[in-house]
C-alpha cells in the first residue's frame, strides 16, 4: 500500500472515530444528567448485554476475517459470500428468537424489555459485522468509516430529540440505539451490495466453507470473548453485589476512562490489512516503531484526566462519589491500547491466535478470582477498581512477553519502567489530589520522555525504513 493511500485511510478512520468519540462522550455526559441513576443503570445493562452478542456467530465471522485479511474485494467469490451471508442471517434469527422466548420468563418487565431489544441488536450487530469484516479485510476504509459514523450520528440526533421532548424513560434511549444500528446495517448492506443483493437462485448450502471458517475463527472468537470478559466479570460482580445504581455509576466512570481507546481502534483497523500484505521480516521493525510511538502518545494522553476530573463532578454531581475512581481507572487506556494495537493486531497478523487465546484465558481466570475474592471476602469497591488495572496489566504484559519471545525481541525491561509511570499516576492522584498529582505526574512524564528520547527517535526511524 502506498504511503499516500495509507495516510488517507488513517485520516478516514481517525475522523470517523473522532466523530464517534465526540458522540460517545456527549451521550455519556448528557444522558446521566437528565435521567435517574437507576434508569441510567438499566440503560447501561442493555449496553453491557449488547457488548457480548458479537460472540453469537461462534467464530464464523472471525474465520472470514482471518482467512481473507489483505484480499482484494474484486477477487472475492461473490456467490460464496452471498451464501455465507444467508446462512449467518438464518442462524442469527434463530438465536434472536431464543432470546425473546427467554425474556418472557424473566419476570422483571424492565429486564424483559432489555432482553428483547438485545435480541434485535444481535441480528443488527452480527449482520453488520459481516460487512464490516469484508471492508476491513479488503482495505475499503472510506466505506468502513462512513458505516461507523452514520448510525452513531442518527442515534445522537434521536437522543437529543428525546431530551428536548423531556423524555426520561430509558426504554426510548434503547430504541434510539436500535434505530441507529438499523441505519448503519442498511448502509453496510449497500457497501457490499454485490454480495448482499443477489438473486436467491445464487444461494447454495456452503456448509464445508462454514466449517472451515468456524474452525479457523473459533480460537480468535474465544480470545476476543475472553478479552471482553476481563472487565465484564468485574462489572457483573458490581451489578450482582452492589446493585443497578452503583453499576450505572461505575459504568459511567469506566466509559469515560476508556474513551481514548476509540483512536487506538482506528489505527489497528487500518494496520491489519496492511500488515497482512507486508513481508514478515519487516514486521519486527514496524512493531518496534509503533511500540515506541504508542507508549509516548498514551502517556501524554493521560493528561486529559486532569481537566476531566475537574469539570465532570461539577457537571454530574449525582455521580461525584463514583468519579473519584477515575484516578485508578484512567490508565485503562494504556494497557487496553497497547494490547489492542500491538499484541492483538500483530498476533492476528502472524496467525498466533492460539497464543492470543491462552493469554486472554489466563487474564479471565485472574479476573474471576479477583472478583470472587472482592465480592465475597473483601467487599471493597476501591480495591476492585484497582484490580481492573492489575488484570489489564497482566493481559498486556503477558501478551507482549509471548509475542516478543516469538519475534525474538527484548522488551521486558520497558514493561517495568512503564509500570512505574502508571503507578505514579494512580498513587499521586488518588492520595494527593489534583494539584500535587498533576505536578508529580508532569515531572515523571518529562523524565520518562527525556530518558527514552533515543528510543522514540529510533522507533520513528524504524517506521521510515519500512
From TrEMBL:
**Segments passing through the bilayer:** 12-35, 47-68, 80-106, 112-135, 144-164, 211-238, 250-272, 293-316, 322-347, 359-377, 383-403, 438-456
Q: Which organism is it from?
A: Loigolactobacillus binensis
Protein name in the entry: Flippase
Q: State its location(s).
A: Cell membrane
For membrane topology, the record states: Multi-pass membrane protein
InterPro entries in UniProt = Poly_Biosynth_Transport (IPR050833)
Superkingdom classification of source: Bacteria
Keywords, ordered alphabetically: Cell membrane, Membrane, Transmembrane, Transmembrane helix
